C-alpha cells in the first residue's frame, strides 16, 4: 500500500502571501489531499486549521465534527479516493467543552473514526486547562488493516499504544504539532512505539511557527521492526512511502514478543 504524510505549514508566509486563516488552511490542505489520488492513506498534522499552539484562536475556530474542516476533508477524500486521517480539529461539544479531536474518513468521504485526545499537553496551562480529555481508545477497520488513532503528546504514554494493539491495531496514525526544541524525543518515541507494538507508525507533524512555537516537522513512517521508511525535512512537503501490511503478521510471528507479555505483576506499594 501507499501512504502519504502531508507536512502542512502553519506559517502565514508559507507559501508566500498565504492568509493565516482557518479557511485558507482548509483550501490549501484540501488541494494537497486531492492531489494524492492513487494513495491508500493520507495523514495531516494536529490542529492545523486553528494552530496547536495558537490558544487565542481555539474558541473562535472551534467546530463540530460536521463543521467546515470535516466537510472540506470529506470532499477531498472522496475526490482522491483515499482514506484520509484529517489530523485533528478543535471540536466544540454540545455542552461547550473543547476537545482535540482526530477524524478519519474513508474513500467515499464518510467519517469512520473520531478520537478525542486522551493526554493533554501543558501541565497547568494551554491544552491541559482549555480542553477536555478523551476517554476512549479508538481503532478503525479499513480495507488495508486496522488503524489505531493517537495524537502528539500521546506518544509519551505506552499504555495507550498497548491498548491500541489489544484493540487490533496494525497501523497507528499520529498527527502532531511537536516542538522543534524536542525533536530528538520525537525521533526516539516514534521509532520506539512502532517497534514495541510491532506496528506501522505514521507520524505527521506540522511545519512552520505558530503561537510562538517552532514546529519540528520531520514527519516519519516507521515499520514494525523500528526501521524508518521515510522522513521529511523541516518545511512543507509530502512524504510518500510504500509498504506491505503483511509485514505486521510476519514480524509478530518471527519475533513473538507480544505473546510473552506478563500483565498480572502487581507493583509494590510506594514507601
From TrEMBL:
InterPro entries: C-N_Hydrolase, C-N_Hydrolase_sf, UPF0012_CS. The keyword Glycoprotein does not apply. SUPFAM superfamilies: Carbon-nitrogen hydrolase. It holds the Pfam family CN_hydrolase. The keyword Hydrolase applies. Keywords: Hydrolase. Residues 1-24 are annotated as: Disordered. Belongs to the carbon-nitrogen hydrolase superfamily. NIT1/NIT2 family. This is Hydrolase. GO terms for molecular function: hydrolase activity. It comes from the Bacteria. Residues 1-12 have a biased composition (Polar residues). Gene3D superfamilies: Carbon-nitrogen hydrolase (3.60.110.10). It comes from Streptomyces fructofermentans. Residues 1-245 form the CN hydrolase domain.
